[in-house]
Amino acid sequence: MRALHVITGLGVGGAEQQLRLLLRHLPVRCDVVTLTNPGAVAEGLRADGVRVRDLGMRSNRDLGAVPRLARLIRRGSYDLVHTHLYRACVYGRIAARLAGTTVVSTEHSLGRAEIEGRPLTRTTRELYLRTERLGAATVAVSDTVAGRLRDWGVPAARIHTVPNGVDAAAFRFDSAQRQATRALLGLPDAAFVVGGVGRLVPGKRFDLLIRAVAALPGAWLVLAGDGREAEALRALAARLGVAGRVRFLGECGTSGAGPGIPAVLSAVDTFVSASREESFGLAVVEALAAGLPVVHAACPAIEDLPAGRVPGTTRIGSGAADPTDELTAALRHRMESGARRLPPPPAVDHYDIRLSSRRLMDVYAQAIDTAAVPPTERAQS
Prior knowledge:
Blueprint: E1 2-7, H1 14-23, E2 29-34, H2 40-47, E3 51-54, H3 65-76, E4 80-84, H4 86-99, E5 102-107, E6 114-115, E7 118-119, H5 122-132, E8 137-140, H6 143-152, E9 159-161, H7 175-185, E10 192-197, H8 206-214, E11 219-224, H9 230-239, E12 246-250, H10 261-267, E13 270-273, H11 282-289, E14 294-296, H12 300-303, E15 313-315, H13 323-337, H14 346-350, H15 353-372, H16 375-380
Parallel strand pairs: 1-2, 1-4, 2-3, 4-5, 5-8, 8-9, 10-11, 10-13, 11-12, 13-14, 14-15
Antiparallel strand pairs: 6-7
Helix pairs in contact: 3-4, 4-5, 7-10, 8-13
């Protein structure tokens, strides 16, 4: 089987990094096309031996991208096209239909009121639903996302849940790495250090972490990620007088300079995900794999599991309390309890990338088999 993965961009982000990890484990010959922004993840994919092409889309309304992509699909004689992220799903489904190729799409970032961090509009939803019908299957990265798709009107039979996956071994705690990373970042050996990972955008609410650390003398904060809120967050840390206790690392592990995410997680004592909305919560699972206690708000990766399956986690944001006060109290409790590593919970094995790969291969096989059946026979069955 030959598959073409089409994604909106290849800058550093959860969906982009997940695609790279998935391609390391899929038993399929895969190429990748990015509509725009062939960033750091494109470099990583090429280093892995994956062929990556940039479609050079000039804007959201560059309709010429559709025939260009259709020609590329036809020339490649692909058995299947797999699209990722909103714009790639819309354009990719149309192009695959024009090329006569089966298409599967993954919905990575659908919230209740947002998609990929942007407000959901009626037009956005209509365009999504109209093009969704052109595909053979839609993959949801969590049961929560699957439920949102059903609420939108996507037929349940077309929705397949394939959770995001992690390579747990890559995040295993390493005490020597902890010491080296703390020294590199200028973190005191005995300091209580809070960690956060993700795009620095409003929905991730990293401002809550800065405010909570400001209220806890002796606590430090490490933020790994970049985005449009970076300068505002730096200004907030300075205004609260904690700039010296906050480390902004930018995008980690993409250029060889500075620590990667596993090293960052080894260096911190507690992980926080304060996102207002999430479709999965991959960074939380990575933190659990590193043996970290986790304080989280919205996180389907945890909330979709039976109660009690993820010890070491603390939920915030479910009551009427001020979120900053609630986070501060949770971190104070962690500080007073003493920093300690935990055994990775069973949830980490549940989200093993190899299991996700096998589940996706089942979706591929079903999609191709379904597409091979004439429409009249499908209607009669």
